[in-house]
Specification:
Blueprint lengths: L5 E5 L1 H16 L10 H4 L8 H4 L21 E8 L9 E9 L9 E6 L10 H5 L5 H6 E6 L33 H17 L9 H15 L4 E6 L1 H12 L4 E7 L9 H5 L1 H17 L2 H4 L5 H17 L2 E2 L6 E2 L1 H11 L6 H16 L4 H11 L12 H12 L7 H14 L34 E8 L5 H11 L3 E9 L19
Parallel strand pairs: 1-11, 4-5, 4-6, 6-7, 7-10, 10-11
Antiparallel strand pairs: 2-3, 3-5, 8-9
Length: about 500
């Protein structure tokens, strides 16, 4: 660890082991000293009494999406919180939480809240999915607590009645000629639909209020402090909580990070550069299979093939047999974005590119069809949750946390400039979103600062197109000496327990 409290590891295997060791150290409990938290706890009120803690009635969890297999040890409950914290005695909503109890009550240190990001992903099953990857010391010492953030999943789910249910379907790719006219109309329509369908209450479904909910969960659990692990969007939620309630924050792991000074238009605008940094990892995999894929023998050749294919599909979408859909450039880019999130899916992505190229040429093979069937498989629905719930809450958070520009002409100019600078994303990250037509946020974004105790570990990949290296550095800067940053020279969105090594020995570019 350097004097700036950051470290960069070279290569996945060593970097992964180091990140896992640091994570365990961050969450470790110094039982022998018995005083690790004394400096922070002496002025805190006593935790909620046993009667208050017992008010949580743990029971069966709500039905999961088929075919999700839920950890049978998981129990669930709900916590009532205010819709509007300025009117705490007014309308209330419910937040669904889950628990995987500490394995060794004698070693129990407290609770570890988990958030998978999104924005707006359900987290009820996260304790069960994370437990197999965690050290026994963590499983012994912590109740693992999952939750659906307000408005998400089983926590008073919200819906705008959007026709396109998935979040990626709302990425505003310009037309083939770069025009954003259609994007402007769609953004306006979706903002109006949310206002009409979800209503004014949607304004209160923000990250700041979600952080306040977490403190109500802490109270209901009878804890003085919470430890927290947030991924992706969850890093912003954790940073906001640690700034609103520094005295209530114990240990914290933040992985794949959001720069809190850039929410949210600046975060999205960073996707162009992030994609340019990440894409060569996949291009290298495809280049290594040039004999069978025929997409190019170098990273540059594969990149040129991909850009030409996307441009062609922008102008001439290709109908996909057996579906009601056509493959256009926006869909190809969206699939690419999704499969770049994990190194393990890079070989699949190379196969998708080949299948789409054959589709565009009118010579789809049976093998290509099987690949595309996987791509077009519908996501399982969750009983009791609207199909457009994540897309609705994605918009509620990204538009409601901070105000966006309302200048359509600026979006057109910025998208054109982005299109030229970062061709892989075709101007989408700087284009117009429904946020341009959203009602003003109820409050300013929470200022994340370096004030408060430390014990925050930031994990960040070098080539993460969703949450970039620059964003991880930005979060480290605002948290200051409260945080240590571990950077891994790898691609993808996950650092901890992320799987296979990144591709090595890229073919030379030409």
């Amino acid at each position: 660890m350097s004097t700036t409290r950051s470290a960069e590891m070279s290569g996945r295997p060593r970097g992964r082991r180091f990140a896992m060791a640091l994570m365990a150290a961050t969450l470790a409990v110094t039982v022998t000293s018995g005083c690790s938290d004394a400096a922070h706890e002496e002025d805190l009120p006593a935790p909620a009494d046993q009667a208050e803690a017992a008010a949580i009635e743990w029971g069966a969890c709500p039905a999961a999406a088929s075919p999700v297999t839920r950890d049978p040890r998981l129990t669930c409950a709900t916590v009532e919180v205010p819709l509007d914290y300025d009117e705490a005695d007014g309308t209330s909503i419910e937040v669904a939480i889950s628990r995987l109890a500490a394995a060794d009550p004698e070693k129990r240190h407290g609770v570890l809240l988990l958030n998978p990001g999104g924005p707006a992903l359900s987290g009820l099953d996260m304790p069960g999915t994370m437990a197999p990857t965690l050290p026994q010391s963590v499983l012994d010492g912590y109740d693992l607590i999952g939750f659906d953030p307000r408005g998400v999943g089983h926590s008073t789910p919200q819906s705008c009645g959007l026709e396109v249910a998935g979040v990626p379907g709302h990425f505003p790719y310009p037309a083939a000629d770069g025009s954003i006219d259609a994007n402007v109309e769609l953004a306006r329509t979706e903002a109006q639909r949310c206002a009409a369908t979800a209503g004014g209450d949607l304004r209160y479904f923000t990250t700041a209020n979600t952080a306040r909910d977490l403190d109500r969960v802490r109270e209901a659990l009878g804890e003085q402090k919470i430890s927290y692990w947030g991924q992706s969007y969850g890093t912003y939620l954790g940073a906001v909580y640690s700034s609103l309630y520094p005295e209530r924050t114990d240990r914290m792991v933040l992985e794949g990070n959001i720069d809190p000074t850039e929410v949210w238009s600046g975060v999205v605008a960073g996707w162009g550069k992030g994609m340019a940094e990440r894409f060569p990892d996949a291009a290298a995999v495809a280049a290594g299979q040039d004999d069978t894929l025929g997409l190019g023998g170098t990273v540059d050749e594969v990149t040129r093939t991909y850009l030409a294919l996307a441009d062609r599909l922008d102008r001439e979408p290709a109908p996909v047999p057996g579906t009601q859909q056509s493959m256009d450039g926006a869909m190809l880019r969206t699939i690419t974005y999704a499969l770049l999130l994990d190194d393990e899916t890079l070989p699949i992505l190379a196969q998708v590119w080949k299948a789409v190229a054959n589709l565009a040429d009118g010579r789809l093979t049976a093998a290509d069809g099987e690949v595309l069937q996987q791509v077009f498989a519908e996501a399982p629905s969750t009983p009791g949750v609207p199909a457009d719930n994540q897309a609705t809450m994605f918009l509620a958070l990204t538009c409601g946390d901070a105000e966006w520009s309302h200048d359509v002409a600026d979006y057109a100019a910025d998208s054109a400039a982005h299109r030229e600078a970062w061709p892989l994303t075709a101007g989408m990250p700087a284009n117009i979103w429904p946020c341009a037509f959203w009602e003003a946020p109820i409050e300013e974004p929470v200022t994340v600062t370096d004030e408060g105790p430390g014990d925050i570990l930031i994990l960040q990949n070098r080539r993460d197109h969703a949450t970039s290296w620059d964003a991880g550095q930005g979060l480290r800067e605002v948290l200051g000496d409260r945080a240590a940053l571990v950077g891994v020279d790898n691609g993808g969105h996950s650092v901890y327990d992320a799987g296979s090594p990144a591709p090595t020995g890229r073919p030379s570019t030409s």
